[in-house]
Amino acid sequence: MRSAEVLVTSPDRNFVTLRLTTEDGVVGLGDATLNGRELSVASYLSDHVVPLLLGRDAHRIEDTWQFLYRSAYWRRGPVTMAAIAAVDVALWDIKAKVAGLPLYQLLGGASRTGIMAYGHASGRDLPELFDSIRHHQEQGFRSIRVQTSVPGIDAVYGVAAQPSSSGRYDYEPAQRAPLPAEEDWDTRAYLRHIPAVFEAVRGEFGPELPLLHDGHHRMTPIQAARLGKDLEPYDLFWLEDCTPAENQEALRLVRQHTTTPLAIGEVFNTVWDYQTLVREQLIDYVRSAVTHTGGISALRRILDFAAQYQIKSGIHGPTDISPVGMAAALHLDLAIHNFGIQEYMQHGARTDEVFRQTFTFTDGYLHPGEQPGLGVTYDDDAAARYPYQAAYLPFNRLKDGTVHDW
């Protein structure tokens, strides 16, 4: 490796990108963005990883992955795994460019012609929610996540109509501010409200439209079990992150009480976070992002493990995954057999200006394109116009002031 650069820019939000260049001048990009902790990963890369990469053989992807994972001694964690992911994806980008092929061809070729994506509809009330669903259908989405405000709660995760400092038309949780915003939460009010919302959505849009919902870790296992059971009549595609799953055994209780499909894992970093969940078939979809789970190499191994238990992919794809990380996900989606669905939250125009992309979204399906490598280039001049700005995700407090899962 001739050079390794850590690039930080903030067009619509903060992104950390690793750019590797070989002795022959081949460039590879990797996404290292960790929402709200971006500079931690940038420092980890600059101070500890970049010196280890110079002079290494860019084609030894697996050896480099194992070296970065095992040589640090202190393993796992989001900062370490995001840094390793950036290196891994950049090396795959390089290898595919040298081969003159789109990356998915090196992963075994296409297993499908397109990648089903879901969009993010939301509203403060039912008319606004219905308008949002119709808007996403007009954009081409065939599967839609439904989030809604809850009476008695001032601010709820996933509702686009609430204020955003980014100026985006849709939901963007990261607020550009020196401190995280405080929001309120009431689980009982939420549990009372949500089933009626899905009843209304089914009544308006019929039984065929695949609907998803994100609980965002805010319920206890028994509360999650109740919600899953209450939502069964509305035939959800999945209920996501119904309870904090660091305690993997908690999902046993949820599974015992509901047949609503479960998706877990956007905050997970390694296969060890999934071991019990997969082996005991406690979930139906793996939600990890390439960017936060050690890269293409590591997430492919997790999904191969999951495939043995008929568990499918649902790779994390919000706007805190840069277009580089999104492209990496799409190449993996296209190649694996146990693909389920891909989250797709479209980036803003400023981000698209910095990260030039070849992947497409047509009639509800994504495709990474046929350009050699990932299909993403980085515009340094555009990136320089958007310097880093401190930004944080919100956090929740209950009515009595207790900090709660957001």
Topology:
Elements: E1 3-9, E2 15-21, E3 27-31, H1 38-53, H2 61-70, H3 78-99, H4 103-106, E4 115-123, H5 126-139, E5 143-148, E6 182-184, H6 187-205, E7 211-214, H7 221-230, E8 238-240, H8 250-257, E9 262-264, H9 275-279, E10 285-286, H10 295-307, E11 312-313, H11 323-335, E12 342-343, H12 349-354, E13 355-357, E14 360-362, E15 365-367, E16 376-378, H13 380-384, E17 395-397, E18 403-404
Parallel strand pairs: 4-5, 4-12, 5-7, 6-17, 7-8, 8-9, 9-10, 10-11
Antiparallel strand pairs: 1-2, 2-3, 4-15, 13-16, 14-15, 17-18
Task: Describe, in short, the structure shown.
The chain is of the alpha/beta class. It has helices at 38-53, 61-70, 78-99, 103-106, 126-139, 187-205, 221-230, 250-257, 275-279, 295-307, 323-335, 349-354, 380-384; strands at 3-9, 15-21, 27-31, 115-123, 143-148, 182-184, 211-214, 238-240, 262-264, 285-286, 312-313, 342-343, 355-357, 360-362, 365-367, 376-378, 395-397, 403-404.
